[in-house]
Amino acid sequence: MRQPTSRSSWRSAASAEANLGLQFDYPCAKSPPMMIRRSVAALALAALCAACSSGGGSSAPIPPTIPWGSFRHDSSNSGASIDDFVGLPATAPTPIEIDGSAVSATAAIGVGGDVYVGTEGGTFAAIRADGTALKWKTDQCNAACPTLGAIHSSAALAIIRDVPTLSVGSDDGKLLVFQDHGTSGTCQFCFQPSVPGATVSFVSSPLVLINSATLDITAIILGAKITPPAPAAPYGKIYAVTGNGSLLWEYSGENGRPIGPVTSKAASATGDFIILSVDGLPPPGEPEANGELVALTTHGTLLWRRALGPLRHPDSTWTMSPMVGNALTFATGTSTTTNPDTNATTTTAEAWALTQDGRTIVWHNTFSNEEFVGTALLSIQLEPTETPTATAVSASATPTQTPTPTPPPTSTVVRTITATATATASPTISVTPSLTDSTLFAVTRSGKVKIITTRTGAVIDSDLIPTIEGNVLSSPITTFEGTLVFATDTGRLYALDATTLELRSNSPLVLTDGEAILSSPAMAADGTIWIGTSRGMFRIRGS
């Protein structure tokens, strides 16, 4: 495998993301003359490039560069940073305690390096970039939402009128939006949908879409788990909320076909459609069912649904989020099979690539006796290649349906964030041939790295990895120059060279010896790694 290791090759690789969707140029802070082209991220915001396609003369303002804006970094859910890894220290730093409870969410990191994250104890906090102190924290929103509830959701960060604005869900079924005013934070609104006779929980992470002309929020999209009274099975809903807390639309299925619980973050390459992975709804008496990918327009219209396999590991809170890139959609999952004679259970880790119309499986890889738990990551390489030759498996996608509009609920708003939606026609999803290759990195529960060429599904250098102490339960990330970073349930943080899979210096770093780390790492522009643990947040920076 040839992995770009120099800044110039990674810049070229990033430039090739024109095939992934709409994009914009922004200056790299480390080298002012250099321009790096990136696909539109959720917080930069998919609607920005509506101006690029709306005709000549449009000049939307360029949003500031956010180093880590949401779970999996960007709207494609790539998990790939555009900044350099600077190494691990020889010893672990002192954790930053927020409220004494665990942090399992992934941090969002702002332009200046400030960090935003929620805790399982029900506190949302802003932490100074240098890690010396909390800027502010709160465990309440307003009179309508006097408590936040436990937070497993990772916040999504957008810069609205120069103010960092954070959207995050809670286990209590609240979508909360905060703004950071420096020494204090304010809760802008609390959106809390009601489902008669059932409870609503938001453990998924939001996707935020931004108006191209005003850079205001047009939609916050968040999946929910709906739990009705027993014996009925939980099911899912997808909500879209405006920037001032009003419901735009909700989707829970069509024609008597509900969707399963939604605990993944939506992916979007172009900002005019979204793809989510949802749990399957098992038949009565069955332990599991095939999960699905669900594609919707940003107006809530169904484009397609496609059953694949179990997309959430039974030991995980979250369904593995889909990834979008190179005109393909990628998904990972873990299936289990029980021998009826011996009751012995075997597991199979699985990975899929689909065309973005959902009709064709380009490739499907299985890894016997392995398990994927966290979401994989997508790394772009500059490698001219031919048209994909993998055998395609065709199937009919569910025809388009229009959801029934739902009246918006009443929301208490501290300050209205004006958002003017840009009208967008329902898109026609087409597959654009790519001139670049990309690589899917998936880390198994036991710590093996599965490296898959996304165009053909070829597995490269499988199982080449040092012995990992413990199980990998969270999602890995990759850095600009090519370092894989992930944590284990023994409290260790690993950093590996993505080309050789050799351990970086001081790896592994022991953070919480013997205590599981469920949070996925996030990386600031200066190479600092932030990760949540049972003891709070760790700020990790080598020399």
Task: Provide a brief overview of the structure.
The strands form 10 sheets. Strands 11, 12, 13, 14 and 15 form a 5-stranded antiparallel sheet that branches. A 5-stranded antiparallel sheet has the order 21-22-23-24-26, with no helix packed on it.
Q: What report would you give on this structure?
A:
- The protein is mainly beta.
- The chain is 2% helix and 35% strand.
- It is built from one helix and 36 strands.
- Strands 11, 12, 13, 14 and 15 form a five-stranded antiparallel sheet that branches. A five-stranded antiparallel sheet has the order 21-22-23-24-26, with no helix packed on it. It has a four-stranded antiparallel sheet with strand order 3-4-5-6, with no helix packed on it.
- The model is unreliable at 1-60 and 381-436 (pLDDT under 50).
